[in-house]
Amino acid sequence: MALALSAVGFAVAPGAAAATPCPSGAVCIREANGTILTKNIFYRYGAHNLSNVTGVRVIVNNQTGGAGFQICKGYNGTNCYPVQRYVGEYAPYDFTPINSVVLVR
To answer: pLDDT tens digit string along 60-80?
Structure first.
C-alpha cells in the first residue's frame, strides 16, 4: 500500500535491502546506487542548499517527534512544496529542479 503525497508526487517506497540506512534524527537523500553521501544527511532544522543533487533520488525522513521536511525549487528554502511528515523512504523523485531541503519541527 502506498501513501500518496500528491502535492509533490511522493509516495512511500519499499525499503531496499542494500540501501545505506539514514541515521536516526536525520533527513537523507540517497544516491541512485542506494548510498548516502555525508553531504546529503541533514540534522538541523532550517534550510539546507543542495550541491550537485540531480536526477532521480530517494529522500528518507528518519526524524523523530513528528518533524518533517520540505523540498524547494529555490535556494535557502524558497518556492517550497508542502511539509511531509511521514517517517521512512519516499518514492524516487527527480531532484533536478530541487535546490534546497528544509527541516521543520
So the answer is: 999 999 999 999 999 999 999
* Amino acid at residue number 5: L
CA distance 51 to 103: 17
Dihedral class, residue 9 (left if φ above 0, else alpha if ψ from -120 to 50, else beta): left
Q: What are phi and psi of 39, to 5 degrees?
A: -65, -15
Which domains, and CATH codes, for the chain?
4-104 (2.60.20)
Start-to-end CA span in the chain (Å) = 27
Residues with Cβ within 8 Å of residue 28, at least 6 apart in sequence: 22, 36, 40, 41, 42, 59, 60, 62
CB 97 within 8 A of CB 21: no
pLDDT tens readout for residues 7-27: 455 544 444 456 889 999 999
Global confidence as pTM: 0.82
Partnered with residue 49 across adjacent β-strands are 100
